[in-house]
Specification:
InterPro entries: HMG_CoA_Rdtase (IPR002202), HMG_CoA_Rdtase_cat_sf (IPR023074), HMG_CoA_Rdtase_CS (IPR023076), HMG_CoA_Rdtase_eu_arc (IPR004554), HMG_CoA_Rdtase_N (IPR023282), HMG_CoA_Rdtase_NAD(P)-bd_sf (IPR009023), HMG_CoA_Rdtase_sub-bd_dom_sf (IPR009029). Belongs to the HMG-CoA reductase family. GO terms for molecular function: hydroxymethylglutaryl-CoA reductase (NADPH) activity. There is one protein chain. This protein is α+β, with helices and mostly antiparallel strands. The protein folds into four domains: 72 residues, no CATH class; 90 residues, no CATH class; 217 residues, 3-hydroxy-3-methylglutaryl-coenzyme A Reductase, Chain A, domain 2 (Alpha-Beta Complex); 91 residues, Hydroxymethylglutaryl-CoA reductase, class I/II, NAD/NADP-binding domain (Alpha-Beta Plaits, 2-Layer Sandwich), CATH 3.30.70. The chain has 19 helices and eleven strands. Strands 3, 4, 5, 6, 7, 8, 9, 10 and 11 form a nine-stranded mixed sheet that branches. A two-stranded antiparallel ribbon has the order 1-2. A hairpin with a 2-residue loop joins β5 and β6. It starts with 33 loop residues before the first helix and ends with a helix. The N terminus and C terminus are likely disordered.
Length: 548
């Protein structure tokens, strides 16, 4: 008879420890320790103490053997890893003969046969003939810069592994940072340098969102519980009410170099030159010559003493366009330099663009895509789906988003949480996440119609998105763009894919605004966040605290 036959007795939370364990033996509702039962000679069930002791000892011995084996394997792996890193460091100092190298499993490093491999030798060999440990030794010895591993090895994945090994020799803990199961080739030279792994983010979908007659399931990458669920509710309310419609009001990326002239008079002359339609045409031609898609639309000039700020604005097709417009601006500045030899280009970016910083200029004049979206939400949907009333929504929106933001001196922040939705979509679709600063400029408006329904709109003057370039070509981000039907350039109507993405961003922001303001109007915000951000145990604790 095995002790396993008494498994129900061991499901009450007791754990075995060597020579000290508990066996729940019911005898007049009194528990006896396993050692006491054995020493007494009989168990509460009448079994001989020796037999019970033998069964328990067998169970313990089996478990201890498994634990010992696992511990030994773990110690072996750690020792091998440490030996490999020590070996690389010593090899960098020419101390280790090649036949003393240590094998390392999946990232196995094996020394070539034939004795010592000093740095002078391995540094002359192709990296394809070197083990990972030898390449690491060259990195440690500063023969190969760590940031050049991809170029030197011609293998991005191997470069990541060796760079991680190098950092481990410096005491950096990277074990739990993922680095496998990803294609690093598209990242090289485009998205990131000194790559050691990646951060995985959960992606949820909100929708369907009916926009301009098309339904979209919008991908959102976030670690904020409740965000996707709330936005999804807003999408439902919009779709049930007939959907939203959008308008693209303007489309042009900007770059604002800062120029210095000899005097205020010469600065004024430069401004006149750029303001004159005839001379502007020459600047425009120079700018447009740098790209098949970039088309200069305007140059806005401001003067501060002898310093000139020129804000070049150009259509950039389906690309977000920063590189494109920078290239065109440089060419235009060459023409201006020929006309004004004393002009000094202080910087191709003079913060007059304005990129990745709050600025009234972007709020007033726009940057990237300027989009406005509207929808009418029926009173019944407001009541049944959003659990509030039209009057309450209008009141909260005016008090919070308009008056509250004005009292705070906000620039472009006349909304509840546009940045939440913008950033989540940006991360999911490979946009420049730092551009959420200006892309989140938004004013949310709500009013009650004559029929008692809710009319709402969001206007966002500076959404900066692209469907080519940047991180849009990475596998996961490409998949999310395909989900929206806007992956890559639109060959028939250049720029329309990026414009559609901007419209989707604005419409999803409206869905998020609608749901959050409804939660505030109904007093649901704290409860919903506790439900989606915390465990039920924490929720109960918060409720108990709130009741005190």
């Amino acid at each position: 008879m095995s002790v396993r036959e008494f498994q129900p007795l061991f499901t009450w939370g007791f754990k075995f420890h060597r020579s000290q364990f508990l066996v729940p033996l019911l005898s007049n509702n009194v528990f006896m320790s396993g050692n006491e039962a054995v020493n007494s000679g009989t168990s509460a069930g009448g079994w001989a103490g020796d037999a019970l002791s033998e069964m328990l000892q067998n169970e313990l011995t089996e478990g201890q053997n498994v634990v010992r084996a696992e511990a030994q394997a773990l110690r072996g792996a750690e020792a091998a890893k440490g030996a490999m890193l020590d070996q690389a460091a010593e090899l960098a100092a020419n101390k280790v003969p090649a036949d003393h190298c240590v094998a390392m499993g999946a990232d196995e490093v094996e020394a070539p046969a034939g004795g010592v491999r000093p740095l002078e030798v391995i540094s002359q060999l192709p990296t394809s003939e070197l083990s990972d440990a030898e390449v690491l030794a060259l990195v440690v010895a500063k023969k190969i810069p760590a940031y050049k591993l991809e170029k030197v090895l011609g293998d991005c994945a191997r470069a990541v592994v060796i760079r991680r090994m190098h950092l481990e020799t410096l005491g950096v803990e990277l074990e739990t940072l993922p680095h496998e199961h990803i294609d690093y080739a598209p990242i090289q030279g485009a998205c990131c340098e000194n790559v050691v792994g990646y951060v995985s983010l959960p992606v949820g979908t909100a929708g369907p969102l009916l926009l301009d007659g098309t339904e979209y399931f919008v991908p959102m990458a976030t670690v904020e519980g409740c965000l996707v669920a709330s936005t999804h509710r807003g999408c439902k309310a919009i779709t049930l009410s007939g959907g939203a419609s959008s308008e693209l009001l303007a489309d042009g990326m900007t770059r604002g170099p800062v120029l210095r002239m000899p005097s205020l008079a010469s600065a004024a002359e430069l401004k006149k030159f750029l303001d004159d339609p005839e001379t502007f045409a020459a600047v425009q031609a120079a700018f447009n010559s740098t790209s098949r898609f970039a088309r200069l639309e305007s140059v806005q000039v401001s003067v501060a003493g002898r310093t000139v700020f020129a804000r070049f604005k150009a259509f950039t097709g389906d690309a977000m366009g920063m590189n494109m417009i920078s290239k065109g601006t440089k060419k235009a500045l060459e023409l201006l330099q020929a006309e004004f030899p004393d002009m000094i280009v202080v910087s191709v970016s003079g913060n007059y663009c304005t990129d990745k910083k709050p600025a009234a200029l972007n709020w007033i004049n726009g940057r990237g895509k300027s989009v406005s979206v509207e929808a009418t939400i029926s009173a019944s949907v407001v009541s049944k789906v959003l659990k509030t009333s039209v009057d309450a929504l209008v009141d909260v929106n005016i008090s919070k988003n308009l008056i509250g933001s004005a009292m705070a001196g906000s620039v472009g922040g006349f909304n509840a949480h546009a940045a939440n939705i913008v950033t989540a979509i940006f991360l999911a679709t490979g946009q420049d996440a730092a551009q959420n600063v200006e892309s989140s400029n938004c004013i949310t408006l709500m009013e009650k119609t004559r029929d008692g329904d809710l009319y709402m709109s969001v206007t966002m003057p500076s959404i900066e998105v692209g469907t080519i370039g940047g991180g849009t070509h990475l596998q996961a981000q490409s998949a999310n763009l395909r989900m929206l039907g806007v992956k890559g350039p639109n060959r028939d109507v250049p720029g329309s894919n990026a414009a559609t993405l901007a419209r989707i961003v604005a419409a999803t922001v409206m869905a998020g605004e609608l749901s959050l303001i409804s939660a505030l109007a109904a007093g649901q915000l704290v409860q919903s966040h506790m439900q989606h951000n915390r465990s039920s145990q924490n929720l109960a604790g918060a409720a108990a605290t709130a009741s005190n």
